[in-house]
Specification:
Shape: globular
Oligomer: single chain
Mean pLDDT: 88
Distance between the termini: 44 Å
Strand order of the largest sheet: 1-2
Largest sheet: 2 strands, antiparallel
Helix content: 40-55%
Low-confidence stretches: none
Length: 135
Amino acid sequence: MVEYRIDRRSGVATYVQIVQQTKQALRLGHLRPGDKLPTAREVVEATAINPNTVLKAYRELEREGLVEARRGLGTFVKRALGTAPAESPLHGELDDWAVRARASGLDRDDVAALFTAVLETHFAVPEKHLQGESS
């Protein structure tokens, strides 16, 4: 089961954090089709957030076709995302890199900024496609 961690200083809406963390768990294989998400009450008890926030996140995940609510039973994973299992060799390499980054004095925000910059370089969408032009 996924355990949500809410960062109140991040500037990211709480429900969005729940959606993002659920998607990450789906991508890494921590959640699989058929798995049950924690109840709103369980999330509220663990994170001290408003139950409506949890329900809003779950509705968003349902709208995206990732989960389904079963009346009286809970919310269940409907489909998986991605192909990056947590036991991938790349996970270990990235873990080693994060250890080195922290040892060199970078904090979490520095690492996130650096990693995001690298992602943008390697996974950028060509500008033509963003403007709706065809090649």
